[in-house]
Amino acid sequence: METAEKRILNSGTTDPNKILPMKYTWARTHYKAGVANNWTPDEVNMQKDVETWKNPAALSEDERRLIMWNMGFFSTAESLTANNLVLTIYKHITNPECRQYLLRQAYEEAVHTDTFIYCCDTLGLDPDDVYTMYERIPSIKHKDEFVVNMTKSIFDPNFTTEGTENIQRFVHDLVGFYIIMEGIFFYAGFVMMLSFLRQNKMVGIGEQFQFILRDESVHLAFGADLINTIVQENPEIWTPQFKTTITENIKRGVELESAYSHDCLPNGILGLNAHVIDDYLKYIADRRLERIGLAKVYGTENPFPWMSEIIDLKKEKNFFETRVTEYKNAGSLKW
């Protein structure tokens, strides 16, 4: 079988177990980046976090609210992400090298879920409080419902990716999953939690969010490459109407995340307020649009230049320099 016969979708003649020779080397690159990023939450010392959390004077009520809101959203969002991967996306992606990356990503989502178990246990948080916030807090509930509704097509047991309309539905759901959920909803939470790290507060949780961000950056890159390749192989799906639909979905995602940010930060804290996060959301939304070949909407500058290095991974070594325990894979070369 020739490598050229491989396709992301509907590759009925391709043996899904035959990964060589590879056609989509970007999938292999993302897989190896994920392996090089390997970490577990219990590597991170949270003693200072415990002392800070139990000291009533160490954090303001607004700071505690921000932390709890983010714990409530991420603790269930990571499980939602893992379910999307394992139950639907893997099933419809027929390419073996892409499937290998999806397995790696599923493992990372399990690590992220474990992170919030570890944080809840260490800080002594009430799990019923944290893990039901997506039901009790409207701004969290609306985000989760939006993603669930946007990705419901591929949960249909009779769904297939045969035909132009179904491929459009699949790409539509991939955008909801990778671009909006992981690329917009997650990133506002990252900037909130990493602002604590800059102030040397809740440094253990901040460090774990830093590691999650590093993983999510690769997830987002893989998702964009996956979407772009499906569009390249099926150009008939990329109609003006479909592009408008995708753009409107991303804009709606920005609106929902903005409402959540204002809920998290009703009064603002040192160096951070909801209006500045609104600008950041618009900035990253433009980047996500451009990444999948769509026009920018907002034209906003990045209000958090200190985040660029972390998010863009331009200096990978910074992650290792800030770790409590150095981690290096013996077989891992330069990225």
Automatic annotation (TrEMBL):
Its cofactor is Fe cation. Binds 2 iron ions per subunit. InterPro entries: Ferritin-like_SF, RNR-like, RNR_small, RNR_small_fam. The chain crosses the membrane at residues 175-197. It catalyses: a 2'-deoxyribonucleoside 5'-diphosphate + [thioredoxin]-disulfide + H2O = a ribonucleoside 5'-diphosphate + [thioredoxin]-dithiol. GO terms for biological process: deoxyribonucleotide biosynthetic process. SUPFAM superfamilies: Ferritin-like. One of its GO terms (molecular function) is metal ion binding. The keyword Transmembrane applies. It is an enzyme of class 1 (oxidoreductase). Fe cation 1 binds at E78, E109, H112. Fe cation 2 binds at E109, E182, E216, H219. Its EC number is 1.17.4.1. Keywords: Deoxyribonucleotide synthesis, Iron, Membrane, Metal-binding, Oxidoreductase, Transmembrane, Transmembrane helix. Pfam families: Ribonuc_red_sm. NCBIfam families: PRK07209.1, PRK09614.1-5. Provides the precursors necessary for DNA synthesis. Catalyzes the biosynthesis of deoxyribonucleotides from the corresponding ribonucleotides. This is Ribonucleoside-diphosphate reductase subunit beta.
